[in-house]
Every structure is written in structure tokens, then in C-alpha cells.
């Protein structure tokens, strides 16, 4: 089963190409690490796959739906952008209840899941405080819960561990593993390579709008020229160096 399939995707701003002829597949049930230097085009690709941006050319399916069919795709995905979309004047609990309603979740089921995630991310005692009073990490946690709450088929995450302490990073990793164990898919963009190394089943490295390498983290590490002590960071630096 395929969760994401892109065919010759291209995006130009004016006449400047930022995504060039991008074709790749993400298998269902995988955590896919989408890497690349600043400005490589990762956010642009995520915005195209989440139907927030139209490609200049090419096509893609997400959870079996064409990205030309925005409503169908939106129904099946979750998206955590770099800045979580939250209402600062709501409490954390109100924000998540609002989101559950917006996503058409059964209220009792939603309440159970909200309670579970608030507890898991150590937010229970803050649930009735306004988001405007939350730290950056706490806001990130609410954004994360919101993206996963409605059990999307494909979850897109842009720097999900940004601002999180090591305990929270561990919790996030466990949550993603649990999430994909039932066949859902995570598309994860981050510069924090140890997280990708720990979590990803497959990795793609984007450079100047083109996918320059793909494989499992182990395969990528075996490809670097100095095989001793190589990390995903070594791989990244070697293949994206000017
Ligand atoms: N609205 C826009 N108009 C013009 N150029 C844009 C626009 N949005 C992005 N770009 C350009 O597209 C390229 C890719 O940007 P994008 O944000 O997708 O990169 P990224 O890989 O997510 O980078 P980072 O790791 O820094 O977040 C960059 O050169 C950027 O300047």
C-alpha cells in the first residue's frame, strides 16, 4: 500500500523553479524522514501535499486521493506546520475540543483521546489555562496533539520536536511509533537527524528542489565514504555539501 505518490512535481515562484521533477513514493505504515538543507523546498512540498499550495506541474496522491481533490485529501490527513495553528485566547482543552468538533469526532471518544494525550504530554494541570500563557514547548505539544487527535491516515509534521525537552521528545517518538503501528503514515521533516535516525523507516534527502538520495537510514549511512562512526549527520553533510 502506498500513502504518498508524487509524479514529476514541479513548483515555480515567478519563473524560478524551487521543486523540480519530484517523483517519490512513501509506503503506508512508514515513518518517512524528509530531509534537506535550508531552502531545499521541504515546506513547499509539504504545502503541496497538504493542498495548501498548487504545484506548477505534476501530480500526487495522498492516502489514495489526488491532491487536485482538496476536500478528500484534507479529510484524511493531519498537518503540523512549523508554527502550530492555535487560538491563543482559548485554553488548551478548548482548543482541542474545538478541533475535535471541526474534525467531526464523536465527542465522548474525542474527550477520552484529549484526556489521554494531555496526560501523556504533561499538560493536564495546564488544560484550563489560556494558550497565550503557554511556553513555546507547551504550545508545540498542543499543536502535535491536535495534528494526531482525529487519527489521520497520513500525518505531515514540520519540525515536530522543535522546542521540546528530551522527555517530551521521547514521548513524541513513542507516540509516532504507536501511530504507525496500525498502518497510518508519518511524513516527517526535521533538521534533528538523531530523531530521524531513531524513527525513520525510510529517508529522502531533498537538495535544491530535487531528491538526491533515498533509502533506509542504515543504507544511507553505508553509502558515505568514511564508513567508521558514520551518522545520518555525516551522510547529510557529505551529500549536500556545496
Ligand atoms: N512565497 C514564496 N515566494 C517566493 N519564493 C519562495 C516562497 N516560498 C518559498 N520560496 C522559496 O522556495 C525555496 C524553498 O523554500 P522552503 O521553505 O520550501 O524550504 P525548506 O526546505 O522548507 O527550508 P527550511 O529548512 O529553511 O525551512 C526557497 O528558496 C524559498 O526562498
TrEMBL record:
Residue ranges annotated for the ABC transporter domain, each copy included: 4-233
The organism's place on the tree of life at top rank? Archaea
Q: Spell out the molecular function terms from Gene Ontology.
A: ATP binding
SUPFAM superfamilies xrefs: P-loop containing nucleoside triphosphate hydrolases (SSF52540)
> What Pfam families does its record include?
ABC_tran (PF00005)
Sorted alphabetically, which keywords does the UniProt record give? ATP-binding, Nucleotide-binding, Transport
Q: What is this protein called?
A: ABC transporter ATP-binding protein
**Species whose genome carries this gene:** Halosolutus amylolyticus
